[in-house]
Amino acid sequence: MTTDIATPAPGTVDLNAFARDAEAFLSAHATRAPSGTPEWGVGDDTLSGYAARSEEDELERVRLAKAWKALEFDAGFGWISGPVDCGGAGLTAEHDRIYLEMRNQYDIADLSVYGISLGMVAPSFLKFGGPQVQSVIPAMYRGDLIGCQLFSEPGAGSDVAGLSSRAERDGDEWVLNGQKVWTSVAHLADWGLLLARSNPDAPKHKGITAFAVDMKAPGVEVRPLRMMTGGTEFNEVFFNDARIPDSHRLGDVDAGWGVAISTLMNERALGASGGDIFGVNRSLERLRMLAAQPGMGSDDPLVRQGIAKAYSMAETIRYQANAADARRKAGLPPGPAESLFKLASTETLRLITHVAGQILGAKVTADAGEWGLYAWADQILTRPAMGLAGGSDEILRNILSERVLGLPKEPGTS
């Protein structure tokens, strides 16, 4: 990746001209990613992103990601559909989609550290934050700052509204106590989007307030959680009398549930926008490359059938994403149907890892030095977590059944 050739920022709404500008920028600063060649070797952990890394490797990954995002932002491609008065380019979601599709064809830095930051946190900061909160958004899109989402708690499971972290008003500040868990990239984050209970006497969906939290502030402690892959992408976060200025509140007091729903819908929309946040297309291409290796089962009818089904599922996701793009162009906000994309992505990944297991057999349990074994072992171990991250499969099925299909609500205790 080179960084010494200047290219013009996109200065036009015309899609064809924009595409030419994007191609000029990408070709000047990156090389096209190889396709169809077995260059993906032992130790390559790009399938899941959750493999074990040394501290040095982690810092280098973040350094390269920040360098690319700064280059991209300064050229006008870092916040394409963002409002001009906040630092964006003021273009459309279609421009965003075109650029993402083109960028996916190039070998650039690993930008997964920004998935939650730009897909969920920054949009909610923009929509619900005051001037102090909104002032950090350009730096988030430039990659200088990283955001995380502080929703899940040990005692609440997938029931976000069941949280127990407390935020108590003290003049112009709020005092926060509690614990969050499964917080992706919290160990790297500068800012967090937090939900806390501000009124314990109100119904559980009514007494919640949302905040933008400085993750480096006193009273905020991050402890990485080691996964069975050896990675530490997830964290638990403790708040011990941490103080948050009221100017960092998102939305009205006790109205944080609306912020939560908007944030989660942004996540669903990200999965529907071609962002491919779970890496389905990359995993599918790697599966094809694996099966094409001599003696790896390309002639096995069950393997061929599994790969064909996975391709069909991925294409279905793409067509539905196009429909979601059309809804957004019509000015419609993300809705419950967007939950389909995350659920479909995890189901497709489940099939991909199953077929990879069929091909590799028992040897996938050990890194014997063969092509791709390490990465597939990492992918197979990580796949269960993908059925929980971003909303468990069971919760997403409930959303689709109740709010899209109109089926009776699942029985509950309240």
What are the salient characteristics of this protein?
43% helix, 414 residues, four-stranded antiparallel sheet, disordered N terminus, single chain, four-stranded mixed sheet, alpha+beta, 10 strands, 12 helices
Helix/strand-derived class? alpha+beta
Overall geometry comes to: globular
Largest sheet: 4 strands, mixed
Structure annotation, total helices: 12
Strand order of the largest sheet: 3-6-7-10
Describe the protein.
The protein has 414 residues and is of the alpha+beta class. The chain has 12 helices and 10 strands. The protein has helices at 15-29, 55-74, 93-103, 115-128, 131-134, 137-142, 256-272, 280-292, 301-329, 339-360, 373-386, 393-404, and strands at residues 31-32, 106-107, 147-150, 166-170, 173-180, 191-197, 208-214, 220-225, 234-245, 249-250. The strands form 3 sheets. The protein has a 4-stranded mixed beta sheet with strand order 3-6-7-10. It has a 4-stranded antiparallel beta sheet with strand order 4-5-9-8, with no helix packed on it. Strands 1-2 form a two-stranded antiparallel sheet. Strand 4 and strand 5 form a beta hairpin. Helix 10 (339-360) runs antiparallel to helix 11. The chain is globular, with a radius of gyration of 22 Å. Residues 1-11 and 36-48 have low confidence and may be disordered.
